[in-house]
Design a protein that fits this description.
mainly alpha, two-stranded antiparallel ribbon, about 45% helix, elongated
Length: about 150
């Protein structure tokens, strides 16, 4: 091998090192790794993450109901309701899809539904519970085709 400029030859640090036998350890069963031996369930819960996020937005913005910043909460809830709606259609959970359409219409910031502030505060808590229930109820079957990513 030709030497590189100012450096030892490639692999020179490995030359002259005596091979040591591996230390003997008593044989015992290997600990079971969590998750690698288990079989995956035939479904996923893809609506759970956006549902939990929507519930956090709803509960965090209860204080903003009468302010002008509430429009941003409405946008967030509407978008998250439509995202969860897509997962309800994929999971064929039609009752949850209808509930998400109702939430998307009621929290729509473009066409405002006139509801008094106290009622909105109560609806925020009810909708948060609804999002959590829908996120837990929607199960989308896993795809069986391993070639798709």
């Amino acid at each position: 091998m030709a030497a590189r400029k100012g450096r030892p030859t490639i692999g020179s640090s490995q030359q002259g090192v005596p091979a040591r036998p591996a230390p003997r350890t008593p044989t015992r069963p290997a600990p079971r790794s969590s998750g690698s031996d288990r079989e995956l369930p035939p479904y996923t819960r893809p609506a759970l993450a956006p549902s939990l996020l929507a519930a956090v937005v709803l509960l965090a913005c209860v204080a903003l109901v009468d302010s002008s910043a509430f429009v941003f909460a409405r946008w967030g809830v509407t978008v998250l309701a439509l995202i969860v709606l897509v997962f309800t259609v994929r999971g064929r959970t039609w009752w949850a899809g209808l509930l998400m359409v109702a939430v998307a219409v009621c929290w729509n910031p473009l066409v405002v539904v006139p509801v008094p502030g106290e009622a909105w505060a109560a609806l925020q808590v009810v909708a948060a519970a609804l999002f959590i229930a829908v996120g837990l109820a929607v199960k989308v079957p896993r795809e069986t085709d391993p070639t798709r990513s």
